[in-house]
Amino acid sequence: MLVELHIRDYAVVDDLTLSLGPGLNALTGETGAGKSIIVGALSLLLGERASSDVVRTGAERASVEAVFDLERLPAVRERVEELGFRLEDGLLILRREVAAAGRNRAWVGGSPTTAGVVGELGSSLVDLHGQHEHQTLLRTRDQRTILDAYGGSTALAKEVARRYRLLQALKDQLEEREEQQRIVEAREDFLRFQLNEIDEASLEPGEDDKLEVEMGRHEHSEELARATQALNADLYSSEGAVTDRLAEAKNVLSRLVGFDISLRSEAERVDEALHLVSDVARALGDYATAVEFDPGRLEEVRVRLDRIFRLKRKYGPELADVLETAQRVRTELYAHDEAENDLARIREEIRVSEAELLSEAAVLSTERRRAATELGIAVSEALPDLGLVGGKFEVELTVSDALSASGAESVEFVVSPNTGFNLMPLARIASGGELSRIMLALKAILASVDEVPVLVFDEIDSGVGGAVASSVAVKLARVAEAHQVFVVTHLPQVASRADAHLVVEKGVDTGITTTVVRHLNEDSRVHEIARMLGGDAESDASREHARELLASSSAPISDERV
How many CB atoms lie within 10 A of CB 88? Predict the structure, then answer.
């Protein structure tokens, strides 16, 4: 609820703090005292555009600050946290500041923010009814939400929205997959050509390196045979070969070791060298014997290398890149083949999802038609008691061209305030008083389902008197059982029903007109009610009349239709 409203240097308000309680809070005072100015200041916290004209004469800036208790408002607390702000002891402080120079600022708690954020949070907490732009019931999207809440269809509406989002996600998925399929199909022949060209080559990893070695051996076979045979001779088979000389060296060192044991290591190393050179020489001899020139094989190798070279030039640069290309193309073609099954699955899911959505939406439409009829009758029956004799209220349901997350129809509240007038949307009602009373009738009926905790009514008693005034008072009191209500009123019947009564007075301070607000005690309240009744507020008769009205208003509200 709204705990406190602090206004400073706004219009004719110098420094004003309103402490508000639960239930019905009435604000009264002489005409021109500044009651609607207070409501106008509050509207700044609901997102209304700020003008430097509202800054009090001689002041640099005007400010409006409201303190809300969010203890029983978990959804609002969650939204505050989502926006990155913190609460102090469960209290939310919203503040707007308007500078005479034209610069405007806004805060949530002690954190600077935008006027839009303050307006969003303020509108979730306060509905202002009168000649202002912040009525929730004027927004068609909120009218649909309210109708569903009234008809007990909120959960069903959320399920329709969920199924609609699921269907749209499936359709988006299908469109994406179909686009991918079209892209692959457009190049499928080319991909299959690439894969066939590579697969037909039957490539093996590292094959090109091996073939290069083999080709070099065939091309230089004569030189290889001659050179390796010569090396075999020099190292092993010819007279005076290296192995012969190493054998002699080995024998000499073996004899010398008998004289000096320290030469044993060198003798062993020469022996190792002899065995190593002998092994190399025999291997070279075997190689020289095995080398042969095969022109046919050489040609095969050259042809094979040429084919590999062409593939590397197209898909390389290396053979590994060619093989990787083949694998990538193979995977892409496989995915294309499998995509048809995937598309069939998605199309079936869409078919089932559409059927379920249509079924749920049809049930929701039935519930909305029922609720629309019942709400239309209930509000229409309440209008005469509020001075709108002949008034008629209806909920228009218009079937949409296409199903949406909101269902199969649009919802709009329409009203004819007087006999002989056409039904028109609530937002087009010209009279602030008529609009406020229509809103009051709605609020009285919707009190149990409306989630906005604070209701502000301005000019609700325009042109109202007598029995209608009493009916307005009873309905406000009934709404105040489920909401905190703040009403600016000229009706003593309404003021007498209030749980808290505040009076606005205008005075002059240092030559400048200023507005102050007082909380009335029992005696001063009698005086104010007597004034509002139109008699001499000081006369015994007027005061007795005021006491009687207060006494009768304190009685429990009957179960009359409200």
Answer: 10
Place of tokens 């009090």: 56
Rounded Cα–Cα distance for residues 129 and 460 (Å): 8
3-class secondary-structure state, position 62:
strand
Q: What's the average pLDDT block by block, 10 residues per block, for the chain (562 residues)?
A: 94 90 92 81 88 89 95 91 90 94 88 94 87 65 90 94 95 88 77 88 91 83 85 86 90 90 91 92 87 82 90 90 90 74 89 95 97 95 86 94 93 88 82 76 79 84 76 89 91 93 83 82 92 84 90 62 32
* Residues whose CB falls within 8 Å of the CB of residue 454, separated by 6 or more in sequence, listed in order: 1, 2, 68, 125, 126, 127, 483, 484, 485, 486
Residues in the chain: 562
* pLDDT recorded at residue 127: 87
CA distance 264 to 539: 143
Spatial neighbors of 147 by CB under 8 A, at least 6 apart, are 368, 371, 372, 375, 395, 411
Extract the tokens encoding 526.
Answer: 């009698």
The 61-69 sheet, strands edge to edge: 111-113, 104-108, 91-99, 61-69, 2-10, 13-19, 512-519, 500-509, 24-29, 484-488, 454-458, 126-129
Radius of gyration (C-alpha) of the chain in whole angstroms: 48
Write down the pLDDT at residue 559: 39
Output phi, psi for 386, to 5 deg. Answer: -100, 20
Q: Which domains are present in the chain? A: 2-136+452-553 (3.40.50.300), 191-315 (no CATH)
Q: What is the 8-class DSSP label of residue 136?
A: G
